[in-house]
Amino acid sequence: MDRLLRYAETLDTAARKAKATAQVKPQDHAFTVAEAYQVQKLSVDRRLSRGEKRIGVKMGLTSRAKMQQVGVEEVAWGRLTDAMLVEEGSALSRKRFVHPRVEPEIAFLMKAPLAGDVTPAAAMAAVEAIAPAMEIIDSRYENFKFTLEDVIADNTSSSGLVIGSWGDPRIDFSNLGVILEIDGKVVEVGSSAAILGNPVRSLVAAARLVAEAGERIEAGDLVMAGGITAAPNLAPGQTVRSTVQNLGAVMFQVE
Ligand code: 0L1
Ligand code: MG
Question: Which GO CC terms are listed, alphabetically (predicted)?
């Protein structure tokens, strides 16, 4: 079997069985970022062939802290499917994941397609609404350790998303205060400016990167803009709430 297909199958199986697997890059030094995106697509195609539906894209490595952690200067993107949606206010099972973490985020809902080099104004003209959101990230690699190539192949740790109420995208969302609480205790605070200085830059980057892969952001898609704070671990029994100034709160429970 082609080596990229083999990596895609291994990562898809690791996600399906919630069982960690070994990184690719330390064993295959020739593995490139371009190949990693091919593995990501092949792996998500397996999910689509099982009946999952594509619902949009996520941006990752969008904060300076995350870029430094992984040692890169460029954002990455991943693909979202409907099976990753967690209903706001509901409980999700810890058993579905290897070692899940949560990130407070902001989500865009698109009303028009977007692809290629676009200005921030053109990107915003394609946005129907914005919402407070959380991403559940879950690396399929042992010990949540990876290289850039590995994490891209692993669909940038994409695993779940929770979306709050949609609001008017014309508000100034460049520097909104964000509080992440677990069981009523504040565990992280941050600002939407942690996303590339302004979340709209993440949407602009998403349009460019998706076009480089020969795809586009579609009307009706969700775009997860990126993590705002460090990502704490999730454990059964927790109630997790993220509040974004002027946008509202979003919560879920872990069981
Ligand atoms: O959404 C993110 O920024 C996460 C990207 C992958 C890095 C990680 O899993 O922490
Ligand atoms: Mg994220």
Answer: cytoplasm
Q: Quote the pTM value.
A: 0.97
- ipTM here: 0.93
Q: Pocket of ligand 1, candidates 80, 135, 151: which has the most ligand atoms within 8 Å of its Cβ, to mutate?
A: 151
At 64-80, the pLDDT tens digits run: 888 887 888 889 999 99
Residues 205 and 119: beta-carbon distance below 8 Å: no
- The class of domain 3-254 in CATH terms is alpha beta
Q: Which amino acid is at 83?
A: A
197: phi then psi, degrees, rounded to nearest 5: 85, -20
CB of residue 161 inside a 6 A radius of ligand 1: no
Query: What is the whole-number distance in angstroms between the Cα of residue 1 and the centre of ligand 2?
Result: 32
- Side-chain half-sphere CA neighbours of 141 within 13 A: 21
**CB of 82 closer than 8 Å to CB of 64:** no
